[in-house]
Design brief:
The protein is of the alpha+beta class. It has one domain: Phage tail protein-like (STM4215-like). It has three helices and seven strands. Strands 1, 2, 3, 4, 5, 6 and 7 form a seven-stranded mixed beta sheet that branches. Strand 6 and strand 7 form a beta hairpin. The chain is elongated and about 55 Å long. The chain starts with a helix and ends with a strand. The relative contact order is 0.23.
């Protein structure tokens, strides 16, 4: 899997921002939740990442849509994780993992079905969140 600027930004904010760092406790994974992962946890994936183009030279601006899925053992747990992820990401501007971030917006959220993991012994609630991440390559 490619390590993109958007991935570095999301991982950095979810593992270092006050509130999210303690809630997820480093359990932030690209694309897929590991089997038998301790919860709560989050995954992240780039859905789209269009670049701006100009005649002669590209400015290096990226407007990525990133999905962050919050996993917990209860519906209320996903609500708490949603708050922490949104507090860490929404309206952030600055530098994260060496990437210049212009702004991050929450664009969409939804409730997901109860998901049974491969171990077959527990059910997990999932809350997908979509963020628009504007940054420089």
């Amino acid at each position: 899997m490619a390590d993109t600027g958007a991935w570095r930004i999301i991982r950095n904010r979810l593992t270092t921002a006050t509130g999210a760092d303690a809630y997820f406790d480093g359990r932030v994974y690209p694309v897929m939740l590991p089997q038998n992962a301790k919860l709560p946890a989050a995954t992240y994936q780039v859905v789209t990442a269009p670049r701006e183009h100009a005649m002669g030279a590209d400015p290096g601006s990226v407007h990525a849509r990133v999905q962050v899925d919050v996993y917990a053992e209860s519906y209320l747990g996903t609500a708490s994780g949603r708050k922490r992820a949104t507090d860490a990401l929404s309206r952030f501007a600055g530098t994260a993992s060496g990437v210049t971030v212009h702004d991050i917006y929450i664009d969409n959220e939804r409730d997901a079905f109860i998901d049974q993991l491969e171990d077959g012994r527990r059910k997990v609630w999932r809350r997908p969140l979509d963020f628009l991440v504007h940054y420089e390559e």
